[in-house]
Write a structure and sequence with these properties.
By secondary structure, the protein is an alpha/beta fold. The protein is built from 12 helices and 12 strands. The strands form 3 sheets. A 7-stranded mixed β-sheet has the order 2-8-7-6-5-3-4, sandwiched between helices. It has a 3-stranded antiparallel β-sheet with strand order 9-12-11, covered by helices on one side. Strands 1-10 form a two-stranded parallel ribbon.
């Protein structure tokens, strides 16, 4: 993997140190070009919506490759909250003792849809973190024979803690529960394999480590579950033959996860097609390997500067590094002055590396946080 080839696709990084991919990625040139061409064609009345629909189908397939799934297992949705809402809506009213298990420090998109299930009779067991994390063992203690769903983040958006999905899937299976994974901070950042880890549902948005834009996302559904699910907001894309299903009176739903599709956002779909092709070009394995090296380099650089960060065993590390500091405002001011873009979460500096970062950038950010 040639670093100069990578950087050439991200011209906006020339004078910027960008460690905020956990909020939103830096737009790559191919995605920007796809957007600009779409706007130009739209503004002259020559936009081809069928081309955009085909782009969505190609993006569906490329995302499936990243998580070890088939395109038929993937629904296109605008956000994780939409995906979670679809899954929540497919849970029947609770019987006595039935419950949902979720960490109480989950991001709202992977929390509110489950919390609302209290109105349908479920005991929603929000597990408090021990320190900064909710390990698999804590979820296991909360689960029992009445648990119907366990929801986790593959990578926590604040701490960067990477969940042991294989262990949690075994807990869910032991309870007969569905296993839902929010992969917003994991897809394109760390390895994911839905079949190996026996995941039932996995959802993500495109605008972080997948290099896409706001408005596109994906929901993986384990094939054995697709037949029993019903769309929540079905439109023409939910049909077996969408292009032949613009009008009633019949409804013949797709036998694949596409029956859960939301109407496609055409401009973001074109951008996603271009962005995911970038990851395919370099090879997702090589991208993930570089990500791991960069994150380790950042941790080592912080340690060399005497800066503490949240530390986890290797199994639980991700591309997000959380740094407690005494004065976040002062640190952020130094970083902004140096054109370094990061974020603050829970009073800590949140740093998120991606394959387009450079080792020397990480060294400089560590110096700035240390006050040098």
């Amino acid at each position: 993997m040639n670093v100069s080839d990578i950087r050439g696709l991200f011209p906006g990084l020339k004078d910027t140190i960008y460690l905020n991919t956990a909020t939103m990625c830096v737009g790559c040139a191919p995605a920007r070009e796809a957007y600009e061409l779409a706007v130009e064609r739209w503004s002259t009345g020559r936009f081809d919506w069928m081309e955009a629909e085909q782009a969505g189908e190609e993006a569906r397939g490329m995302f499936a490759e990243i998580i070890g799934a088939a395109a038929a297992d993937i629904a296109i949705v605008p956000a994780v909250s939409t995906a979670a809402g679809i899954v929540a809506a497919n849970l029947p009213p609770a019987r006595s003792g039935e419950n949902i298990v979720v960490a109480e420090n989950e991001f709202a998109s992977n929390y509110y849809p489950w919390l609302l299930l209290r109105e349908r009779g479920y005991d929603v067991r929000a597990v408090a973190p021990g320190g900064d994390v909710v390990p698999a063992e804590a979820l296991s203690r909360a689960a029992d024979g009445g648990t119907r769903l366990i929801a986790v983040s593959a990578v926590h958006p604040v701490t960067g803690f990477r969940a042991d999905l294989a262990s949690i899937s075994r807990i869910a299976a032991g309870s007969g529960a569905w296993f839902f994974v929010d992969a917003c901070q994991a897809a394109g950042a760390v390895p994911l394999d839905v079949k190996r880890d026996r995941v039932d549902f996995l959802a993500t948005a495109s605008h972080k480590f997948l290099l896409g834009s706001r408005g596109m996302g994906y929901l993986y559904v384990r094939p054995g579950l697709i037949g029993g699910l019903q769309p929540v907001l079905p439109g023409w894309k939910a049909a077996r033959l969408p292009l032949e299903s613009f009008l009633g009176p019949d409804m013949d739903l797709s036998p694949t996860a596409s029956k859960l599709d939301a109407s496609l956002a055409w401009f973001p779909a074109l951008a996603d097609q271009a962005a995911l092709a970038v990851l395919r070009r370099f090879g997702i394995g090589a991208v993930l390997e570089r990500n791991a090296r960069l994150a380790l380099h950042l941790r080592n650089a912080l340690e060399a500067e005497g800066v503490d960060c949240l530390s986890f065993p290797e199994l639980h590390r991700s591309t997000i590094v959380s740094v407690p500091v005494d004065d976040p405002d002062a640190v952020m001011a130094r970083l902004r002055h140096a054109n370094a873009v990061v974020s603050v979460r829970a009073g800590r500096i949140r740093l998120a590396t991606h394959f387009y970062n450079l080792e020397e950038e990480l060294d400089r950010v560590a110096e700035l946080i240390a006050g040098r």
